[in-house]
């Protein structure tokens, strides 16, 4: 093997910041240095991108932040800053299939993503964490807490999807159908979808559209679109809503009351759309299933509280983190 390849491999294994090989999230500058963990999934070598942000005055605790389906680690930047000023170490992965991580053609499952995240924490020597998970990350965070209860001290679910079983009411789409939909995406289609996240759209929200749309410029876009289709089916086929009663750690549900997100909503009639994704009701139903659940309801807030109303979101997070 050439010396340059050995050096590259050595840096990857150490998690030294390097430039990504492929063009995922090209043109997007993350708020902190991006490192890479080498993994082998289904005999394919892949890289998991992550930020590891350490506080100047550590309190000895770590928070791992899990992103949603249409996002990556970039959108946690305000929360990272807040956490580190409070003394928390922030671990912010791009899950395999997202952002600056590899986009392999594999079987995607929340179990696999949870195992990848655990391997990252083990590599970094972090035995205990609080998990902060948004949207699809809420499904992953739930699975992670179920698989590794000894690792999770507390769990925070911010407007998680998967509070209902989509496959029981959303018509099935084949992988080929979903792939064609993903391939036809444009910056404007992303913008229109993201508008559903907020009661009132503001120009500042275009930044997250820009980040999502950066993949459209990638020479690997077909692979990214295929991965997007595979992970849509992961959400559709792998519900977690039947297992909330098995969660052991204290769990905070932060629910923006104006959220009406449904995965596959465009496949439903108007009448069926109105019956599902009703987060005020879903939040109340879900917290009742939990052994140690707490619900914070944010009036007038949509799908992404930490972007729309960061102060209210962080106040709720702070109260929960400070609880004994």
From TrEMBL:
GO terms for cellular component: membrane. Residues 62-184 form the AB hydrolase-1 domain. GO terms for molecular function: monoacylglycerol lipase activity. Keywords: Hydrolase, Signal. It holds the Pfam family Abhydrolase_1. It comes from the Bacteria. Residues 1-23 form the signal peptide. GO terms for biological process: acylglycerol catabolic process. PANTHER family: HYDROLASE, PUTATIVE (AFU_ORTHOLOGUE AFUA_2G14860)-RELATED (PTHR43798:SF33), MONOACYLGLYCEROL LIPASE (PTHR43798). This is Alpha/beta hydrolase.
């Amino acid at each position: 093997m050439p010396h340059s390849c050995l050096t590259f491999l050595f840096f990857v294994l150490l998690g030294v910041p390097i430039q990504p090989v492929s063009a995922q999230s090209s043109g997007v500058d993350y708020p902190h240095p991006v490192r890479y963990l080498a993994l082998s999934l289904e005999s394919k070598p892949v890289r998991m991108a992550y930020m590891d942000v350490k506080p100047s005055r550590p309190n000895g605790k770590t928070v791992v932040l899990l992103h949603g389906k249409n996002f990556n680690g970039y959108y946690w930047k305000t929360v990272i800053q807040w956490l580190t000023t409070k003394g928390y170490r922030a671990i912010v992965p791009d899950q395999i299939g997202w952002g600056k991580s590899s986009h392999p053609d594999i079987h995607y499952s929340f179990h696999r993503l949870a195992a990848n995240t655990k391997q990252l924490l083990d590599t970094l020597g972090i035995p205990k964490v609080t998990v902060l998970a948004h949207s699809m990350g809420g499904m992953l965070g739930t699975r992670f807490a179920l698989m590794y209860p000894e690792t999770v001290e507390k769990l925070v679910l911010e407007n998680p999807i998967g509070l209902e079983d989509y496959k029981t009411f959303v018509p099935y789409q084949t992988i080929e159908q979903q792939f064609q939909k993903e391939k036809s995406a444009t910056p404007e289609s992303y913008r229109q979808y993201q508008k559903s996240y907020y009661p009132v759209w503001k120009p500042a929200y275009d930044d997250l559209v820009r980040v999502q749309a950066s993949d459209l410029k990638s020479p690997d876009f077909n692979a990214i679109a295929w991965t997007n289709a595979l992970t849509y089916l992961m959400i559709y086929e792998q519900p977690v809503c039947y297992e909330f009663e098995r969660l052991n750690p204290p769990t905070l549900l932060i629910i923006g009351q104006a959220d009406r997100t449904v995965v596959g909503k465009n496949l439903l009639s108007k009448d069926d759309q109105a019956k599902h994704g009703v987060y005020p009701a879903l939040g109340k139903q879900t917290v009742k299933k939990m052994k140690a659940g707490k619900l914070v309801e944010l009036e007038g807030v949509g799908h992404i509280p930490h972007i729309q109303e960061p102060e209210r979101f962080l106040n709720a997070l702070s109260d929960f983190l400070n609880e004994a």
